[in-house]
Amino acid sequence: MPTPTHRHELYTVAQVRALDRHAIEGLGVPGFELMRRAAWAALSSLRRHWPQARRIAVHCGPGNNGGDGFLLATLAREAGLHAEVLALDETSSGDAALARQAWKDAGGSVRIWRVGEALPEADVHVDALYGTGLRRAPEPATAVLIGAIGASGAPVLALDVPSGLDADTGSVPGAAIRADVTVSFIAAKRGLHTGHAAAHVGVLELDVLGLPESLWQGVSPDARLLVAEQLPPRPRDAHKGMNGHVLAIGGEHGMAGAIRLCGEAALRAGAGLVSVATRAEHLFALNAARPELMAHGVDGPQALEPLLARTSVLAVGPGLGQGAWSHALWLTALDSGKPLVLDADGLNLLAREPRRFTQPAVLTPHPGEAARLLGSTVAEVEADRFAAARTLADRQCAVVVLKGAGSLIADPDGRLAVCPWGNPGMASGGMGDLLTGIIAALLAQGCEAWQAACLGAALHARAGDRAARHGERGLLASDLLAPLRALGNGLDDD
């Protein structure tokens, strides 16, 4: 399949519908022709992924997504495959009605789905139920069909969007198809790249249906996928003072590991110097395990201030806690005006004492921390991660990395990027501490907050993917440190 020109540009459903209308009304491509091209793209994808398939079952809704399905079934039959169609309704609308008639004219029959009936025997099930048109939970009868498709054991190809997945937000309000492959049309829908979408889209492909470049002129994408980047090589006469000095603040009683991971990640990401301000009880362990970290026992603000004066960037929050000691260091660090990365309890303290940042700042909340900062719930954050990230960035006047599957990076101007890397093995303790250190190191090396957040999120996730080559389950945060160093230098760590 040719690589689409706009594969890194992400659009809202409203934008994609406007592009579709412009293709029809402005470029003169009939809607039925777009449907036919989508069916060809879907059949091509099906035959690439399942070349041995001989029987397909196509599940069609009443709208244009169903029309794509009817034409796919027609083309599949012409290509010698056995195709059966299961429809939700007796009738279809618009161009989908023409597609339905084309299937009947080719000798095909349409079976209406009834709860309790068995699905057709199939090597591949094709989901053409809803597409981008659904933003609520499917009707009960359709939910039963979705469940039956999932329980069939056969692979699933979703057309445009897995039915039940909100193409705008990535949320799943009810039953939803879990596709093995999703072939999306015209433009990439932003909701297919974050949140619960990761468990539903499978392999995601984009086909622009042969539309000309002029279709996208003057249309700014809502968000963009990050691309793999790296820092430029260092000059041959570089010295440690040229690469910044990070001060990592945290490590309350019993939480030395968090601040060590943060500090070590800052070193591996290229900071020239890394100091740690923590409880005195942790110094021996830190010095023994990682002597390159300059660890300091700090009992309060007065002990912290000399360290602040010598450093260029702060990493605040890993293992910090929320007690009196923690709050005093947190407040002193924020009032210093130094560029900073704020995570973990640094964010929980911010939720208790909100402020807008005047210095360069990057916040790295997971959905729970984001909910506390927004005064909402995790469910509300996950229902629209794009809105949550943008609201936080605007409210705090900071760059925000909303972590999770398909991490989002937002800035106060509304700019937004999506991280396409990462894996479930990274859902373990200490991963966020690494991200804090990585972004702080990039700030220390001269990156602006937006660049540091984007590059840091990418390096972190890509290192996680490299480390997961040996398996996702049991992946440790410290397993990312070697591939992180390699990726930061543009090297292969194998």
UniProtKB/TrEMBL annotation:
Its cofactor is K(+); Mg(2+). Pfam families: Carb_kinase, YjeF_N. Binds 1 potassium ion per subunit. It catalyses: (6R)-NADHX = (6S)-NADHX; (6S)-NADPHX + ADP = AMP + phosphate + NADPH + H(+); (6S)-NADHX + ADP = AMP + phosphate + NADH + H(+); (6R)-NADPHX = (6S)-NADPHX. K(+) binds at N65, D127, S163. (6S)-NADPHX binds at residues 64-68, 131-137, 160, 258, 319, 366, 433. Signal peptide: none annotated. Residues 223-491 form the YjeF C-terminal domain. InterPro entries: CARKD, Nnr, Ribokinase-like, YjeF_N_dom, YjeF_N_dom_sf. Keywords: ATP-binding, Isomerase, Lyase, Metal-binding, Multifunctional enzyme, NAD, NADP, Nucleotide-binding, Potassium. Its EC number is 4.2.1.136, 5.1.99.6. AMP binds at K403, G404, A405, G406, S407, G432. The keyword Lyase applies. Residues 16-217 form the YjeF N-terminal domain. Belongs to the NnrD/CARKD family. Belongs to the NnrE/AIBP family. HAMAP family: NADHX_dehydratase, NADHX_epimerase. NCBIfam families: yjeF_cterm, yjeF_nterm. Homotetramer. Catalyzes the dehydration of the S-form of NAD(P)HX at the expense of ADP, which is converted to AMP. Together with NAD(P)HX epimerase, which catalyzes the epimerization of the S- and R-forms, the enzyme allows the repair of both epimers of NAD(P)HX, a damaged form of NAD(P)H that is a result of enzymatic or heat-dependent hydration. This is Bifunctional NAD(P)H-hydrate repair enzyme. The gene is nnrD.
